[in-house]
Amino acid sequence: MPRPSTDDYRSWLFASLLVILAVSALSTGLTFALLWRTYVDEQQERLIGLARSQAQLIESVARFDRVFSDHAHPQGAYGATLSQVADAYRNYKGFGYSGEFLLGRKEGDQIVFLLGQRSFDPERPEPIAEGSPFGQPMRRALAGESGMLIGLDYRGVTVLAAYEPVPALDAGFVAKIDWAEIRAPFVRAGLAAGVGLILIFGLAGLVFRRISRPLLENRFMSKRLRQLSQAVEQSPNAIFITRLDGTIEYVNGRFTELTGYPAHEAVGATPRILRFGETPPDVYADLWRTILDGGVWRYEIKDRRKDGSHFWASALIAPVRDEAGAISHFVAMHEDITERKEAELQIRRAKEQAEVANRVKSELMANMSHELRTPLNAIIGFSEVMAGEVFGELSEKYREYVGDIHSSGKHLLDVINDILDVSAIEAGKIELSDEEVDLANAVDISIRLVAQRAEKGKVDLAAEQVAGLPPLRADGRRVKQILLNLLSNAVKFTPEGGRVTLRGGRAADGGILLTVADTGIGMTEAEIAIAFTQFGQVDSGLNRKHEGTGLGLPLTKGLVELHGGTLILESVKGRGTTATVRFPASRTVRVPAPA
Fold first, then answer.
1. Which three-class secondary structure state does DSSP give residue 157?
2. How far apart are alpha carbons 232 and 554 in whole angstroms?
3. Are 154 and 126 within 8 A, CB to CB?
4. Is residue 501 a contact partner of residue 464, using CB atoms and an 8 Å limit?
5. Which of 30, 213, 290, 530 is the most exposed, having the fewest neighbouring CB atoms within 10 Å of its CB?
6. What are phi and psi of 120, to 5 degrees?
């Protein structure tokens, strides 16, 4: 058999090299694709976890501040909450060089950011317009959505972002990181892989001409080892390698920066030099059990620096196997997460303080119920006895004083009852007593209770389209309380010669509508928001003529929502206000048709 010619051999060798290179390139591409997908999934899980946990913590703080209404902060509960959150994140620079937490809310036609923006002046966050294509994650969060997207942030930069609503602040929370930063390691790795392929082609040419395959492979492996060594040495995370007994053989530069131990002190020691003393022994037992079994161990651990200070690290430790598959070393990577852990700790402490204060408030409300209402009932009762002149005739002046005592006592009792009702609603302690409520009768009783005040203020009071309404399955006493509060407010803010009308109706889905409309002074959108705030009172000439606590509308809204309904307030300044209560169809009692 003739020996192959030199040209044939060269062609065969060249073709073999091409096949090897093609297979290598395909494998690398598939590996990169798999690593990329895994890496992006991990980043998404990380961001979703961060956004959800931070939003829930902020929500808890905001709920406390809204419930515990005695705030020294000039902006009230909202300002107190925002101040705590801003303090917690003030020194937190985010994760990576572009990671950022954002808290925002919608004000008018703008989205306003409530925390300092990393890319702009942190003391003066820049808003974005409602119609702007920027700020896509925050826009979704403010729409009440939660999830993950790749889109434009407030700078117009493409980011990977997780978003969560914060209903208690009417706000949204976003945890984001630049898409370019996520891609950067893979872009660099892709460039390195491209350079490697070019080198392989060049080396293949040399092999094709004059050097052997083993020498080419040795040179290539040497290059790879140098690249890996540089990658480990320049890693942003602390990396160290130990023998099976735990003795440290290698540390990178970041290890020295993070722990304070130079390489010559760390090599030959064991990782015990990093122990802070607060980690339970069973954690270390689990560590050794996992890595000796060939598994990868992950944990967020508190470590000790050389100077005695501590830092939080996200630790990952994995076994390294030799050519025979036996474990020969362990490699550990520690990522510094101190800033994030400290921010979480501050928010957790604020939440615990909120829970303690809420318990104190509940106890105070219970004491108020007994300690204040009991003597007030006695005062009201005795004033009624005196007004009836049971023990003798009173002079006109004393009769006037008795009337003042009685009306003031009733007013104070109503205030206390409103406060207790609002607190009970927020604590979820009000239980509805469902029954069939005759709405026509409930409206008639409420109208009669307000009629004297309307007559005194020369306000026309009427009810329309109520007689034909079906029964409502609800708490009868609370329904009357809802109607009485709305009618009283309408009469109170309607000047002489005005009109207050209560109308009944049916919603398209079968629910029941009750509307209280007046021709009073009306309110702006900003004043409506104040009216729905506990103890919020809109400043006007009329409200200074009448006593009020600012609890009527918040209490009414809470009672309506307990029934699964909604309360909507529509108003035009100077023309009047319309309050619409909608009870869901599920509470409408079906009346059988007559036979």
1. coil
2. 60
3. yes
4. yes
5. 30
6. -125, -170
CA 584 to CA 575: how far, in whole Å?
Answer: 29
Cα–Cα distance list, 113 to 104, 128, 142, 147 (Å): 4, 9, 12, 19
Strands 128-129 and 110-113: antiparallel
- Measured distance CA(284)–CA(156) in Å, rounded: 46
Query: Does residue 534 or residue 405 have the better pLDDT?
Result: 405
Q: How many C-beta atoms surround the C-beta of residue 489 within 10 A?
A: 24
Q: Are 408 and 376 in contact (CB under 8 A)?
A: no
Distance CA 155, CA 137 (A): 12
C-alpha–C-alpha distance, residues 549 and 84, integer Å? 28
Q: Quick one: 472 and 539 in the same domain?
A: yes
Instruction: Report the CATH number at residue 303.
Output: 3.30.450.20
Judgement on whether residues 172 and 254 belong to the same structural domain of the protein:
no
Average pLDDT over residues 355-359: 73
Tell me which residue has tokens 């990671």. Answer: 99
d(CA 133, CA 346): 34
**Is residue 229 included in any domain, yes or no?**
no
User: For the segment 220-276, what is each residue's pLDDT rounded down to a tens digit?
Assistant: 677 777 887 777 777 888 888 999 998 998 888 888 888 889 988 889 998 888 888
Provide DSSP, 78-99: HHHHHHHHHHHHTT---STTT-
Structural contact between residues 174 and 155, judged by C-beta atoms closer than 8 angstroms: no
* Calpha distance 450→417 (Å, rounded): 19
Q: What is the pLDDT of residues 449-488, one digit of tens each?
A: 888 889 988 999 999 888 888 999 998 888 888 998 899 8
Phi, psi angles (nearest 5°) of residue 91: -100, 10
